[in-house]
Amino acid sequence: MKKQNSLNKLKYGxxxxxxxxELLVVIVVIGILAAITVVxxxxxxxxxxxxxxxxxxxxxxxxxxxxxTDYGSYPTAPLTNNCPTSPVNDPKYCLKASSGSxxxxxxxxxxSPAGFRLDxxxxxxAVKYRITNxxxxxxxxxxxxxxxxxxxxxxxxxSTYNTNNFCVMKYEAxxxxxxxxxxxxxxxxxxxxxxxxxxxxxxxxSGCHLITEAEWMTIAQNVLSxxxxxxxxxxxxxxxFSGHNDNAxxxxxxxxxxxxxxxxxxxxxxxxxxxSLTLTNGEVIWDLAGNVWEWTNGQTTGGQPGITNETGxxxxxxxxxxxxxxxxxxxxxxxxxxxxxxSTWNATNGIGRLYSYVNDNxxxxxxxxxxxxxxxxxxxLALALNRAPGGTGTGVGFRVSR
Length: 402
Fold this sequence. Notes:
4 helices, 20 strands
């Protein structure tokens, strides 16, 4: 009888189980299916969050614009419980954020007229979108994950100037086989008009463009706030380094030693001729002041800042009186940086001077920073407004952003 039962078990496979190999195969398959499910769910979830944040921002923008229409300005202070309280507390303009999301409102006082920036962040997923008074919602990228082209460095965005994180050339643009290139070798690409610089910049890389006025002021604000860029190690005390501007040597320079901020100038610390400046994220940018002037995308047909009674173009301090502030789209004055004490800075602090004429209503392009023979007129805030967009000069180059 026992023998018969054993035969039956063998016949019908009642003792047979899964082999180790079969179990491993099943586990692997289950793992793959689980991973696909998680990835698919995460992707769908992230898309849902993105759509929700963009919708929140679009609705909020409409309310803020209505507030502006009714009261003549955007809210001038951070929102309280998503409701504007200044200059007028009006509950009907409270903003509504979706569940799990928060708003961060900033009045961009560096713009003229003032605008706003509104961030919407989903706290659980850390996804953040941003909208401004004149732009659509866009994804905010963490500076650490920003991928820049070769020769470019990442720059933290500024709420003052309504800029997101962006990439900019570490060095002034050099002409390498007709392509604008950021590298230490060669002297800067000069004798180029603003019009041509715009076209050349867009060809440098996908998404590239001539540096904008808002981007320039973002970088200037950033480096001005870093103590090591100042001669005394204290912001606002002494002078910020203003680059090669003493006409010795009497020409634009390449960079033969990127490890030495005084490369090729014949100077050493504590001279103001240091050509490199450090950003808050530790990145280093070269020749933001001195060496050659740089075109930005800025243009104006009037509204230049300057002295009210001047009769032609002239150099002046940013603190000159009686000064007309003008109506440039991005406020170029030191005070717009919102750095303590900046409103009192002048050329002795290394920031540069303004070259303008309040009565000129011709189309003018913006050049920034100064060149090798500019002396105390050079600096990160130096601005000259006397050139037509089609004009060129042996001391005028450009820089590219993305």
